[in-house]
Amino acid sequence: MRCGECNAKIRPPSELEAVVMRCNYCGHEQPVPDLAQRRAAIAERERLALEKQKHAHSSRERDLDRREARRSRRWTWVISLLSMLIAPVIISITIFDLPARLGFGSSGAGRLEQIQAQLASTGCTVLEPLDSEWTDGNVSRLINVDHQCIRALAAGGGGHHTLGLKLFGADGKQLAEVTDTIDPQLAYCSKTKQVLRYEIAVSPASKGRLSHLVLACPK
Ligand SMILES: [Zn+2]
Fold first, then answer.
1. This model's pTM is above 0.90
2. CB 197 within 8 A of CB 213
């Protein structure tokens, strides 16, 4: 490239934005010869910069999305773990009646204690002490009796609305019976020393805690 004035050898400026070039010898200014290419190069450079920026933006967006997805996955995991833990708790409470089996909740013992106190005032004494247990079926107990009158009592907690009581002799014969009531009481006077068996009848499909007690009472 040569200067149009002094014909000295000059080099076009390296920066793309330059539109004129100046001669170092005479100071003559003339347009750069490759203006169109320079403009194209500038446009290309801007296009690339814009693309790069767009790319950075979308990758940042993708990063956020990924982080959010990870967070929601973590939440899903926590929730499924919780439900996995909650399910057995619900099942153990509703189906296996676990709290009652472990001894929580009413067993009817409070009512039996009151009845025992009432009967003690009439001279009754304890033959078999108050006992509570969880059951979903009939309860059977043996009692040793002398020539005396006895009273067997039963009471249920929330799981048992009504209970029945039956008393059997050693020969298997039924000696007394009280059909389903809330707090059944059964009285029997034995003429000899013998072993009797009493059975607490639980209503079908009932389950829960119940209490029982046997007293010896004056005739
Ligand atoms: Zn020149």
1. no
2. no
